[in-house]
Amino acid sequence: MDDHSSKHRLVDIHTHMYPPEYVDILSSRTTIPLVRTFPSSPDPRLILLESEIPSLERALADPDAPLPGRPLTKHFTSLPAKLAFMARHGIDTSVLSLANPWLDFLPATEEAARTARRINDSFEAMCAAHPGRLFFFGTLPLTAPPPAILESVAHLAALPHCRGVVLGTGGLAGGGMDDPALLPVLRALADAGLPVFLHPHYGLPNAVFGPRSASGEYGHVLPLALGFPMETTVAVARMFLAGVFDAVPRLEMILAHSGGTLPFLAGRLESCVAHDAALVGKNHAGAGAEKGRRRRRTVWEVLREQIYLDAVIYSEVGLKAAAEASGGAERLMFGTDHPFFPPVGEGADAEGEWESVRLNAEAVNKALGDGSEQAAMVMGGNAVRVLRLYDDA
Amino acid sequence: MDDHSSKHRLVDIHTHMYPPEYVDILSSRTTIPLVRTFPSSPDPRLILLESEIPSLERALADPDAPLPGRPLTKHFTSLPAKLAFMARHGIDTSVLSLANPWLDFLPATEEAARTARRINDSFEAMCAAHPGRLFFFGTLPLTAPPPAILESVAHLAALPHCRGVVLGTGGLAGGGMDDPALLPVLRALADAGLPVFLHPHYGLPNAVFGPRSASGEYGHVLPLALGFPMETTVAVARMFLAGVFDAVPRLEMILAHSGGTLPFLAGRLESCVAHDAALVGKNHAGAGAEKGRRRRRTVWEVLREQIYLDAVIYSEVGLKAAAEASGGAERLMFGTDHPFFPPVGEGADAEGEWESVRLNAEAVNKALGDGSEQAAMVMGGNAVRVLRLYDDA
Hints:
Chain A has 15 helices and eleven strands. The first copy, chain A, has helices at 20-27, 53-61, 74-77, 79-88, 111-128, 146-158, 183-191, 210-214, 221-242, 244-247, 262-274, 299-305, 316-325, 355-368, 373-386; strands at 11-17, 34-36, 45-47, 70-71, 93-98, 134-139, 162-167, 196-198, 253-255, 307-310, 332-333. In chain A, helix 5 packs parallel to helix 6, helix 6 (146-158) runs parallel beside helix 7 (183-191) and helix 11 crosses helix 13 (316-325).
């Protein structure tokens, strides 16, 4: 790392961990998300998705049925495994985040806030033990009473290695990111200079993917490949229509998976707003309308003023669209999505190079030019600047 | 038109009509889709979407409530209005299609096939009355008994102006485009040289868009801007995973709205397939697996070998991604989506230039170069070639 100037550091902003405190919570649960052990599996199994419930039920009823979910390997839980993964892929710095579904499922009590503090302190300790190599996006106890959520924001703002928060799309009690009750939380985050890393978890209802997906014939492809990105897109479109970006103009959002589908659909979204008789004539769509005089900002303007995208899109085509939609490569930041999408199949070696990482790095270099300044910014320089990772940045 | 060579004709492949026979059917229905008249509205109202049911119910209960759906203007039903729209926008040739939801809602009887024949004959007569200016994508009676569906394919193949069929994503009785029972229909279409124009209608379940969309605060933006494209993407991804493209290698698909989100998500879809332990090791994902020896084709290969995209994406960013994903501008074809998305708001003139048309034409010219050969191909040359519109092509 010594030979890397801060501009040319390789930074991974999309990389998850489940610290031991969190695994204990999942292991004690009886509904998803949960962790279960099976006699035929060396690792416990992590079951996260609604689409995995049928295979969980089959496996509980029949010891010969295929195992549900994914193995909870050390890649999910071990800090040395994370550091080794980083070293193998030349990653100088990782901005860790708790993986989905965070603390969304906790009962609506003060206890949720104490759990969040325990987990955030655990992330802070991991980062402090590896100075300059690790930062993190904190976790909010969104089921706790609102004052406790705001206290969590203040707690995170005071932790030296916290650089934002990771949020799902559920908002408070499932009200979504366009729920007016969430605005005070978003304002507190904006005031604290903590960007929101928006990440999907709930996907789309299983019925959308049809019976052959439900029976397992298509693996988990459809919920992950299509449900996740659409969930993110819907969440941010709802924020746009509700006027959240106008109501909290200093709010900064980092969208997982290059914005879901937003770069591709921004034109259609903008056109649908401009052609909807129920919306045209309002200065702002939705909640922003009462603000009055200013003209409505377009989807494109919001993309280029308050939104950053990670570069987890697995293709040159997608990466180019993401860069162009967000006004240039200066709003894109490399990520790996580790520990998800490990190598699979015959001869797969989770301790070797990960194809999923290579695909995303290659997309950046192909789309922006191998060795170009723009590619270097996406691979790390932007994260250093946007997330203020180093004093010398 | 005389001064346009077939290569430089302006062709609109995404343009809908409801002939009078179809409006009669909608007017007689009591559930969506339906047409209703209201004392306060000069035009009947067309109510198509699940998301429009609450406003329909409010309007039926309260004469002062906002009107549901959209006005069923002459743009939806009148051939002279279509021809005037074409003339105003310099469109030489239109490939008409019945708008959603086609005949998906008809009872499962032989009668559905007779209805389809009546409507297809009506389209053929319209086209025959304006030689060289009009062609059409036919409609299949997908609720009819399978032999009657195959007879419909044969009937369409014999109509001189039919150039394919428009299909929703429901398949037979809602089984989807990946239903093995649909394969004989797809094979018959491929054998007859009739491409499938795949078009969304069902969108996503309303719950996905949240309470403020359901209450009407966001107009119809979310179902149309996001639900429609995701529906198309899911349908074609299900076909891919089921091995339909391998099972019917001569099948040609034209995807509405530039493939929904497929160009942007193709990389993620391909990566999810390649990283799914349940799929890796099969030569083909899903139903194609039994075919054995050949390696699995990637999403990218299928996009470039069996899929065409319309250019209805309303942005330069999206258009570029669509062109690149499908291997170049030769697989893209201009469309307007007329009569949907007319001008709205103060001073709007449905008899003037339509912004929605201008946005799509501008996207082609910006992305591919104003006056370039590539832009000319997308604006018409490709449709002339792919759909064999003229003998001199």
